[in-house]
Amino acid sequence: MTEQTGFPLPSQIADVPGAENWRSMYQYFTRFQPDDDKRFWFYNSMHFPEPMPAFDTITGEVPYQAIGANTARLFVLPTTLGIEHRIVNGRIYITANPVLDPAEIERRAVEFGPRAGYYFENWDALYEGWKNRLRALIAEIESIDVPQLPEWEPADVVFGAVGIAQNHYLQENFHRVLALYSKMWHHHTEMLMLGYGAYVVFFQFCQQAFPEISDQTIGRMVAGIDVIMYRPDDELKGLANLAVELGVDDLFTQGCVAAEVLAALEGRGEAGARWLDAFGKARDPWFHVSSGDGFYHHHLSWNDDLTVPFTALPGYVAAVKAGGIAPRPTEQLTADRERIANGYRDLLGSDDEKAAFDQMLGLCRLVFPFVEDHKFYCEHWFTTRFFQKVKAFGALLAAQGVIAATDDVFHLHHTEIDQALADVSLAWAAGTPPLGAGHFQPIIAERKAMIEVLKGWSPPPALGPVPEALNDPAVRMLWGITQERVASWLNPDPDEVVGVAASSGVVEGIARVLHDVSEMSQLREGEILVVPVTAPSWAPVFAKIKAAVSDIGGSMSHAAIVAREYGLPAVVGTGDATKRIRTGDKIRVDGDRGRVRVLS
């Protein structure tokens, strides 16, 4: 077999038959340019594993604005600028812009030191302030009204001399929704990039001081963390315990339907009422967790679709009745991290090196919980409310006849929604029907059809020339993009699936390949989970599985972090595990070497 030496250039990617007009869905600045053929791009399937509906591209557009602003302009990280993104056939590719000139790195470091130092020195207080700001943004977006445009304004608008009719607020309030989403992402990256930065510095120190050390061993030195991203799963465990305590556990059986269970509980007297009360308290805010990772409108929250929690509850109820739900092995992980850290510290030759090691490791442990905690506030709680509010504007446009169905709003770019709202505002003011139906409905129909076609396209893992060095630590840790990984994409090992050694241990077991969290009920106790990528809503499965394998991710991805916290072997960033492994295969997962072998 001829060895492959490079990836296709962006300009060589052909349109998918049946979706040749895909460019019409996206803004001009998301298209590949001629000079982009000279650069290396990789498919960001961690965050964008599906083709992007037109509105959902805001989840690439706004985050990359905020990431670059915080990284390059606010904190002035010395070795990296921002991330650029492009869309081809509905898929988002990205590239990181490094700073390579030593003089420029030094110039930036002078600015970075005091700015980052202020945050690191005041981390706990600043983090409390950060949480307050996020809660305020969430309360603000929840409070935004979508005007309903009555035939006449209420009389108190006149007698109160308000002087502004409801149609004015159509666009103002929609703009507020978008502005709040942008503010959220600026806050999202405000402390996150510093959290990654602290880990990157420690990571690089360890690599230089201990050349043989693995990425996951470094990660184990900050394991044993307690983060609120586990809270939704912990709420489910609490509800399972309560169901057994109150004697209503018989309702929670495999395949149970949420609406039927909730209706049955209403007929169970005080016990049912107590469970329902606890359930209601858990839902806000802990069920505002997306079934994905907060980047697609159709990845609904648990509150929008109770299927995921009611798929997990029967397993937890069964575990309680069998003697109790096994806790995460946090104490063991804490003991292990101290043993590992002390062992490596003892290898250092001088007191200065040991002091530097202690300082960097201490800073990592201080800031690291934020790396997971921010997800709940940002990608889940806030973003759930954001998509719900946009959907409410869709309901208005559907009621006005501009679009055929509420969710069709997500097949319009946010600038097009703005146009549609202007149309509705003018029509209401003039006393005539809006004109948008004839314009937008054919566009939406074509886009929905193209999205379905584009789902069948297999995007290359990367585009453009392979660089001589891939040395961006954040890209390595979050996405698992390394020289070795790129080489394995070009020329896969025929005998083993190769990935990132994310969590130690070697186990054998039966594979269960799942592509979506809604398939969670198919998973059986003791199987090995094989998925494209995990999100926090996958947390209930980690109590059932022996190991985890994912297509996407690096040593600091969500799947890697959670696997270490549960003490499970994991290999992430394989690129193609879900294509090469089938449900029912017996496989061996080597979380120490980053290898997965199909045994039979």
TrEMBL record:
Q: InterPro entries from the xrefs?
A: PEP-util_enz_mobile_dom (IPR008279), PEP_Utilizing_Enz (IPR051549), Phosphohistidine_dom_sf (IPR036637)
Name any one GO molecular function.
Answer: transferase activity, transferring phosphorus-containing groups
**Pfam families named in the record:** PEP-utilizers
Gene3D superfamilies xrefs: Phosphohistidine domain
Residue ranges constituting the PEP-utilising enzyme mobile domain according to the UniProt record: 524-594
UniProt xrefs under NCBIfam families: PRK08296.1-3 (NF006151), PRK08296.1-5 (NF006153)
Instruction: Please give the name of this protein.
Output: PEP-utilizing protein mobile subunit
